[in-house]
Amino acid sequence: MKKDLLGLQQMTAPEIARILDTAVPMKEITGRQIKKVPTLRGRTVVNVFYEPSTRTRTSFELAAKYLSADTVSISASASSVVKGESLKDTARTICAMGADVVVLRHPMAGAAEMLARTVPAAVINAGDGAHEHPSQALLDLFTVREKTGRLDGLTVAVIGDILHSRVARSDIWGFTTMGATVRLCGPATMIPPGIEATGAAVCRNMEQALDGADVVIMLRIQLERQQQGLFPGVREYARLFGLDEKRLALARPGALVMHPGPVNRGVEISPAVADGVQSMINEQVTNGVAVRMAILYLLSGGGKNE
Amino acid sequence: MNRLLLKGGRVIDPLAGEIIAADVFITDGKIAAVGRELTVEETVVLDVSGKLVAPGLIDMHVHLREPGYEAKETIATGTAAAARGGFTSVACMPNTDPVADNPAVIGYIRAKAQTEGMVNVFPVGAITRESKGEQLAEMAALKEAGAVALSDDGRPVAGAAIMRRAMQYAKMTGLTIISHCEEPSLAAGGAMHEGYMSTVLGLPGIPAAAEEVMVARDIILAEATGCPLHIAHVSTAGSVRLIREAKNRGVPVTAEATPHHFTLTDEAVAGYDTATKVNPPLRTAEDVAALRAGLADGTIDVIATDHAPHTPEEKDVEYAKAPCGMVGLETALGLVWTELVAPGVLSPVEAVRRLTVNPARVLGIARGTLEIGVTADITVIDPELEAVVDPDRFAGKGRNNPFAGRTLRGLAVLTIVAGRVVYDAGPTR
């Protein structure tokens, strides 16, 4: 394992598989009545969140706690950021206090990489702008592998605002590296240029993207994109890119439906699908803790002698 | 004793388009003689055998940051960087604080340059007041104060109507409009070129169209008004095509390219080094090839640096937050020689032409040649001299340069302004 987890683009299939394999026993721990092992006792994990986040932040916090690490979470509004301190200085300060792992969520692409170059602590990218969100993609991979038993040869459709989505990018790298085929679909204004060169295929419409797919990943559409002129309105968006039961029937029977959350019910996904038997949305959240435990464990030097 | 003899060099004459073995004799700050085996009594003799003796290089696009941003650069440090890089003249952009939109600021810059500058400083005045793109600046007064051209560099004139009026009025004053072409609504929020790399890095992109839309607009307005137009820092293949076509049609348009745009691509942004953040952004390999072709066929007349110093604190932040710009005065000549002359894109004479007579013509300044009687601005180039770029050793204040660690071959060893040596590489010469 490298010092940091910044993204999946640079990771190899064995490196990804190792994290997924490590998450299996971690998941077992999260299912126990007493969810605590002493593995990271004496280690300090600091969550630094420059963007509001409930799910990712809580997930990392619980993952660290289940492994007995000490954790502190800092949100931008409550920190010295409002006093004008730079990201680098904030990070240096935290590391001077003895942080072993820094989990960073930041609205600007490249922030985690910049931090990783600055501090000796292990840096985990918990989402940087539209760049990457590796722990989310890893939990997506884990969930699919757990349910279907494999990743190689699967067809994964990612639907929605690809342009602004760090989840889409990390999923593209992760799934293609593990041998799956990735199809993309969304409004033409939200398909970033050159995306085909990542190995993903861009589909003309949702029907084409869903046809026979094993996994459907729906992305959250941020309603302020409408003000930016990127799509004309929610009604048309739902009509063209919303996942309902009728459309889901185009996918392979029993195909998995995923969403990184938070969900806009009735916009990108119908309530019936979000709550249906094929929905993995809750499993994703559960698996997220296990995958993040694996990441923390491996970055803290765990399993070095294996 | 103001007498200097440069002995044994090969003199580049960009007007005649030839290189001749000749000595150059300077007296009282002027070129007194150019010829073989000159023998002159009572003079300082500098041995430049094996070196190229060129007219002093002119960088028609720099940001000296003074007044207002002296932490980034001053006229003293910026012109020291120029001297080190082989430039004897620079034209400085008006986006200072206050903006050089009035005679007082132009006068201040010239006075500072007179007392603290190591090379000639030719100020560029603003097109509009405070470069806001709303009301015309007092162009005639700017010219009288010494402005050599007009530009709202860094803040492109967004409105077509005000640009049209500016061109009509500028033509009357005889000043060229230098246009930073970038349609603000298309570029808004962008941090790098929009393409595969911006997609992968997740950074907001600036499409090539942002530049090309305004290049097309300004060419059309120049054609309509007859005002001489100079397109600053051309960065896309589409812009080169538009300019080539306009020139063929006889539109009074000239253009410049920077060393970073003809050398680097957007792949340099991987790793988020903010030294690579520049406006216009680094483009693709096809754009680099088009710029080189445009330089080779004369579509692009001038090589200029867009030298844009910033403090380390300003640049040492998240990529999207960092200010645009890189310093270029001390790496430009090395890049021209390494990237253009060595691979045969430009001959030495053509390269020197784009750094001397061509910018002098655009600005209408009496520089850029080695004719008898002209001011003795001279740059001696050692085409074999190599050095590794080390920003910590720059004479200028800025360290924001993406070429750190690169080996460049073909460097200035002697810079002479009005007969006075302002930079001498010393033993390496």
From TrEMBL, chain A:
- Which reactions is this enzyme annotated as catalysing? carbamoyl phosphate + L-aspartate = N-carbamoyl-L-aspartate + phosphate + H(+)
Sequence intervals crossing the membrane = none
Q: What is its EC number?
A: 2.1.3.2
Q: In which pathway does it act?
A: Pyrimidine metabolism; UMP biosynthesis via de novo pathway; (S)-dihydroorotate from bicarbonate: step 2/3
Residues forming coiled coils: none
The residues that hold L-aspartate are 83, 166, 220
Query: What is one term from the GO cellular component aspect held by the record?
Result: cytosol
| UniProt record similarity statement | Belongs to the aspartate/ornithine carbamoyltransferase superfamily. ATCase family.
Q: How does it assemble?
A: Heterododecamer (2C3:3R2) of six catalytic PyrB chains organized as two trimers (C3), and six regulatory PyrI chains organized as three dimers (R2).
- Recorded protein name is Aspartate carbamoyltransferase
Automatic annotation (TrEMBL), chain B:
Tell me which domain of life the UniProt entry assigns to the organism this sequence originates from.
Bacteria
Listed under catalytic activity are: (S)-dihydroorotate + H2O = N-carbamoyl-L-aspartate + H(+)
Q: Name one GO molecular function term.
A: dihydroorotase activity
Active-site residue list: 306
Q: Which UniProt keywords apply?
A: Hydrolase, Metal-binding, Pyrimidine biosynthesis, Zinc
Cofactors that this protein relies on: Zn(2+)
**Which pathway does the UniProt entry assign to this protein?**
Pyrimidine metabolism; UMP biosynthesis via de novo pathway; (S)-dihydroorotate from bicarbonate: step 3/3
Q: Which residues bind Zn(2+) 1?
A: 61, 63, 153, 306
Residue ranges of every copy of the Dihydroorotase catalytic domain listed in the record: 50-237
GO CC, alphabetical:
cytoplasm
Where, in this chain's numbering, is substrate bound?
63-65, 95, 279, 310
The residues forming a coiled coil are none
**Similarity comment:** Belongs to the metallo-dependent hydrolases superfamily. DHOase family. Class I DHOase subfamily.
NCBIfam families per UniProt: pyrC_multi
Under the heading HAMAP family, the entry gives:
PyrC_classI_B
Q: What does this protein do?
A: Catalyzes the reversible cyclization of carbamoyl aspartate to dihydroorotate.
Q: Please state what the protein is called.
A: Dihydroorotase
What organism does this protein naturally occur in? Desulfotomaculum copahuensis
- Organism classification: Bacteria, Bacillati, Bacillota, Clostridia, Eubacteriales
